[in-house]
Design brief:
180 residues, mainly alpha, 6 helices, transmembrane, Methylamine utilisation protein MauE
Length: 180
Amino acid sequence: MNELISITQNLLAVVFLMSSLGKITNFTQHTQIIKAYRIVPNLFLVPSLIVFSLSELTISLTIFTFGITIYHTYGIVLLLCLYTLAIAFNLFRGHQDISCGCGGILEHERLNWGLVYRNVLLITIVIIIGIICENMVIKADVISKFALFLISISLYLTIYIYKKINIIRSKINLLLELLS
């Protein structure tokens, strides 16, 4: 059980780390994505992206350091609720041709209700892990923690590669349709 919790914690940390790094390295693009949501006034586009990016970065780095605490649970749930409400709000308005702006393996080119369901699932997982971690101490030696970290990275990379293969497959199918 401890191993599964550690892997889940690490995987969440990697997801948030890659998401924040994606926002930081593609700052202008992500500013335009936030603008496309038509929720944040132009004056607050850059500050909001900075807050979101730094929040995700802080959450990920401190999960690696301390594991998930109650503060992580609140922070992650708050961020995911904000992101989910923004997606749902735009879906209700009929704005689907927007990238979700999630970054990393969570990135999608178009908004859809699956993103809302995915985020609700993530919120549920975070709350469950937060409750479990609040009520138990996870003990592992350095070698075990490193091995579990590598397993988490491997899971992240597997999901990332699977996603990229599906994107390539859909582009090949589109190209074949155009050629036939």
